[in-house]
Input
Amino acid sequence: AQTVTQSQPEMSVQEAETVTLSCTYDTSESDYYLFWYKQPPSRQMILVIRQEAYKQQNATENRFSVNFQKAAKSFSLKISDSQLGDAAMYFCAYRTLQGAQKLVFGQGTRLTINP
Amino acid sequence: KAGVTQTPRYLIKTRGQQVTLSCSPISGHRSVSWYQQTPGQGLQFLFEYFSETQRNKGNFPGRFSGRQFSNSRSEMNVSTLELGDSALYLCASSLKVTGNTGELFFGEGSRLTVL
Output
């Protein structure tokens, strides 16, 4: 079974600075999806960024980028120019490419932005 | 278009009662999955439905059940409620077609408190 580990329960960063959230996973599959989801205090989970394992190029979405190291099974999220609205719980998630729509989530990292 | 809609948003029950939660997916999405979110266990997959059929089930007791209707709306039911069932129950919908992006779209959740 796949597992996802986020080793940082909490992180904080000064507004406008850069922060990196860590995620490692374990799987025997060669093709899969990886996601970072954001859950603000309003609770609705929102997709931040997505990475397909077969793509070597790291995904980027505006201020958000990932460092995907497939051999190391590592998938970190970098947030540049942090904004107050980035404050939330961030979840790393794994999804198999075949069949189930099931996401396996990490325990989450609570990100605080200091003004 | 409208997002994933979950009802009710909040509810309080007592031990031994049963509860039914509802989820309306994004129009056109035929796959609906349910997750339980608790501070201790994090986000755990409950089940996934597609075309009115349960396709996958997580490691939860038989007290947890669900169904999906022909319009893709889904309900989940928890019988004989226990204190440990207190959680945020999240519903997610997705397009289950070959080559999709793999993204799940989440509702705001139903907060269940068991007294």
